[in-house]
Fold:
Amino acid sequence: APLSSYDAAMTFYNNSTITIRFGEYNAMHNDQTGNVYPYCGELVLSTTSLNDDGSRYINSQYFDLVEEMWRMNYYGLYINARNYVWRALNDSVVAPPPPPSFREDIINEMTTTVETAIADGVAIQKSQYTTNPLYAEQGWAGAGIWYNQIAQVNGSLIAAAANVPYARTFPAVMEYYRYRNLQAGENTTDDMFSSESRNGMGIPAEVYMDVKIGEALVAINDYWGDSEERSTGNIFIDVVNIIFGTKGLFDMCANADVHPMAQISALGKGLIESAIRNIGFAALGGAGGFLIPYVGPALSAASSFLFSVASIGILLGFILFYLVPFLPFLYFFFAVGGWIKGLFEAMVGLPLWALAHLRIDGEGLPGDAAINGYFLILEIFIRPILIVFGLLAAVSIFAAMIKVLNEIFSLATSNLAGFEGGTASGCGGSGTGGTAPVGSAEWVRGPIDEFFFTVMYAILVYMIGMSTFKLIDMIPNNILRWMGTGVNTYNDQSGETAEGLMQKVSVGGSMISGQVQGALSQLGGVAGGVRQGIAAQNRTPQE
Structure:
């Protein structure tokens, strides 16, 4: 069906993944989805959050961008693509090539369009999330609930912004070439759409015109795929680039005016999205490694490596996106629970406290034996106020420390690699950084440094969060020492509520990672059995 509005497409696909197939609709293609043969390929737009207006707006803008490119000759795309094909089919056709700056102009225009859509989506998201009356209904005991919503709101925005439409299948003739290269055991990472095999055996095409069209489409694909982010040839660096990108942690300067909790949650969500995508590559590599001869062992080894690095990315993302925004609620929840336990302690100990008044020795009316009971009653009355003050202090100090960390972290890492004192770039008070000259720390710092510095950054943020949010417990537990006394309650002896959380997460994550990696190996074994069966069948003489 032709492209329609985003809402109509969502209704057609029952609010799930939207598939845009470019091809020919014919009842004869009954083996194809929707009776459409994908002569020109297939695009996929995944659905993220349906309840957040800003996220939905960003997804709709991606859909509209695809529609505009297809229908309206977006900045000369159709004309220049047509000229490419014409020149490939007939050398005598006069079809001028695109201007030298055409590619950069289109990329800049699309980048501006996407950035504008994301900025508008952020504004819509902000207007949607206002003060929720439900929070007031929870009373003071629910004061720690809403901090986790910061991660929720930013997570849906990050997921929507990263949800760029992608090509699930290329044009049919290109898919044919790729399939033949896979069968021939060719390297499918470089020139995977080549119409000629490296062993000198040409891949035949039934129609000569298909070969020429395929060459034109491959040339167009190479034209747009010729980006600055090329493969380095080092699998570790390439994987780190996939997971962390070229900015990641070190792009904090661009958002220096954003709440630190939103900053780290956005970074964590980005790591999780990239890591999950990497696990998908690992799964494909694990199965493909057994299916494809010659390059199978290499793909299987790369699959294991991808999964290992992706597991690290998921752990870092878990710390920044799930754990740290959850700490205010976690500590506040246990603090409220400790206050309730103190009430029950007072109820149970009330008869014993009354008996303590029988001892009249010591200073004052109650004496030394019963004085602690009065302090316990005072502590029960003032603990809710102290818990709220502890939450305010913890959140304020945490935000201040993370903001300072974001502003000085680039300087600290630059000092490790060296920099030019007069021109080195870094986050300033305005949240902007200067252009790094050639040879400065910005050039020295590579993907490997970004990988390990991101690990260090996540650990630092976790340590800051644990040390600051402890104030929610520490202030109520220790404030009475200013009165020259201390009343030990059950809450004081409950221990650290989150001290073993990361240890349990690490152990559980290791167990799950091992099981998933084992499942991928089993999947690859099944795929290898299928390949061997097909190969044996092909070797069987035909009667």
User: Anything to note?
Assistant: The first strand starts at residue 18 and ends at 21.
